[in-house]
Amino acid sequence: MNETSLPLKQRFKLSRFFQGEEPVAEPVILNQRRIFILPTRQGLLFAALIVLLLLIAFVYNNNLAYMLGFLLASAFFVGILHSFKALAGLVVWAGNNPAAFAGTGAGFNFYVQNPANQARMAVDIRLQQRKTIDFEPGQTRMITLYVTAERRGWLACPTLTVSSRYPLGWFRAWSPLRFASNVLIYPRPARELLPFPETDAGPGEQGQSRRDGDEFHGLKTYRTGDPVRQIHWKSFAKGRGLHSKEYAGTTSVELWLDYAMAPGTGVEERLSHLCRWVIEAEQAGMRYGLILPGLSVQLDTGAAHYHRCLQSLALFQA
């Protein structure tokens, strides 16, 4: 929260009034350096009314008109101070952000603290989405704002704008803030769920699945993740639904998801199918590994392994 002084040239840089200063990781206190104020449309109309009233008072030499004009003008200028105080002293900082998939909304978490002993009314907080919030004295609130994620990889936080038109709407006070905050964007999962690849070997291991015994045990309802070669096609052809053959001593499937086996002509299309396979394999409770050019994630299961695989896909460079 240490505020370093800005050179005069940077203070009057036009982008600073709309995009804010350089991104920071620490909390930011809204003060006279970061808060800007301009009249709104209503404020300009009110100022024009004051000028007209004073002009009438001058032409007709009417003291009551003078008094009313100066009274309205004093309220107008006092409104500048109250607009500044609506934001002054608020403390804003960025929180941790959960990962998201491309094509969905990426959530950025922010904390806003009102350390003053007075309430702050109708404070607008905007990224792409806007929220209007009232803050009680001493209150700290977490606000989540969503931005559309188009591409995989790291998504930098856009400029956060904190603004207010309190109390009468004659002025808009705003503060553009930039934080060194990012969201990891996973690849967009493929809409079409294709069968898992029939890989025969992974790095240092043999086989996609293991069977301790080859004795046929019966049929079971097909579940996502069952090997294609174990599907009982005869029962499916007879209209009895999709079933898998079950063998005595069958253990859990070990699945290798290989970039070279993924369908698609481009990098993004292949990563999209790999992403869908990772999601389905995790939901099916399978042990799975990931093979990418120059990188492999060993067989495992669980939430940590799931996010490790998706992160590898998100940051993959062809």
TrEMBL record:
This protein's record includes keyword Cytoplasm: no
Bias (Basic and acidic residues) ranges: 208-218
Superkingdom as given in the UniProt entry: Bacteria
Keywords assigned by UniProt, alphabetized: Membrane, Transmembrane, Transmembrane helix
Span list, region Disordered: 195-218
Record keyword Transmembrane helix present: yes
Transmembrane segments: 43-60, 66-84
Listed PANTHER family: SLR1927 PROTEIN, SLR1927 PROTEIN-RELATED
Record protein name field: DUF58 domain-containing protein
Organism: Methylomonas rapida
